[in-house]
Structure formats: C-alpha cells, structure tokens
Design a protein that fits this description.
This protein is mainly alpha-helical and 151 residues long. The protein has two domains: 62 residues, Winged helix-like DNA-binding domain superfamily/Winged helix DNA-binding domain (Arc Repressor Mutant, subunit A, Orthogonal Bundle); 70 residues, Arc Repressor Mutant, subunit A, CATH 1.10.10.10. Helices cover 50% and strands 11% of the residues. The chain is built from six helices and four strands, in the order H-H-H-E-E-H-H-H-E-E. A hairpin with a 3-residue loop joins strand 1 and strand 2. It is elongated. It starts with 7 loop residues before the first helix and ends in a 9-residue tail after the last strand.
Length: 151
C-alpha cells in the first residue's frame, strides 16, 4: 500500500476548492479514481478531501448523479431558510401534527435539491425554535409545545 504524507487530503481539498470556485452549480466532479490518478494518491485520500468539501458545502452528493458542485453560500442560506419556513408552515397549519415524524435529511435533500448540510441547517432552525425535537436513532419529530417526544 502506498503511503501518503500527513495532511495531503487537506491540500487536495484546497486545490479542488479553488478549482471549483468558478464552476457552475450542479457541475459533476471527476470520479475518485481519476482524481486519485491526477493527484498521485490513493482513493481514500481523495475521499477524505471530498468529505471535507461536502462538509463545507462546496459539493453535494446526489443519489444517482454522484458528486456535484453546490449552490453559492447565498443560495444555500436561502435553501435552509426555505426548508425551515416550509416545514414551519406545515407544523403551524397542522399538516404535520405534534409527534409526527419530520421528513429526514435525505428526503429534504431530494425534495429541495440541496446538500445534507443545508437540510440539517433548516432542521436546526426548527429545533432551536422548539418546533422539532431530534430523538437519537429515531429521527426528528414535531414538538409544537417544546416538549420532548419519546414515542
């Protein structure tokens, strides 16, 4: 097995971040294999670099499409606010009742075409407002009164 110097993934992530800054949102990234060949590293190092970019919202993994560039920060902010407002409206209208499961991060990603981080931010706004409670291992649930749902 090839040895990769410590921190190589961070340098690769930074180079990719610079390269992707001028790329249109939704543009496909090269495969892990081609990136590994380009940078002369193993795929696991490339995976770590890509994970860092995804965590930072630079790219998003879309089922069936692979990794693509994400929307600029302003669009991401609008995305998580839109998710939060849509769900807030569903909660206040009674469409989502107290104790009912809230759509998962994955479902929100598909529905809104956003990254996991953007979906998570939208849900975090609702949690902070006391409208949604996360139950470890079970998901998120409507909690309109700020009470913990244990069902």
């Amino acid at each position: 097995m090839r040895s990769t110097p410590w921190g190589t993934y961070a340098r690769i992530a930074e180079q990719l971040r610079e390269r992707l800054a001028d790329v249109a949102p939704g543009s496909a990234l090269p495969s892990e294999t081609s990136l590994a060949a380009e940078f002369g590293v193993v795929r696991n190092t490339v995976r770590r670099a890509l994970a860092e970019l995804e965590r930072d919202g630079v790219i998003v993994t879309l089922p069936g499409r692979g990794r693509v560039t994400s929307e600029p920060a302003a669009a991401t902010a609008a995305g998580y606010r839109r998710i939060a407002e849509d769900l807030r409206q569903q909660i206040t209208s009674g469409e989502l009742a107290t104790g009912q499961r809230v759509p998962s991060e994955a479902e929100l990603m598909r529905r809104y075409g956003v990254s996991r981080g953007t979906a998570r931010q939208g849900l975090a706004l609702l949690e902070a407002a006391g409208l949604v409670t996360a139950v470890h291992g079970k998901g998120r649930f409507v909690d309109a009164k700020g009470r913990l749902f244990l069902g």
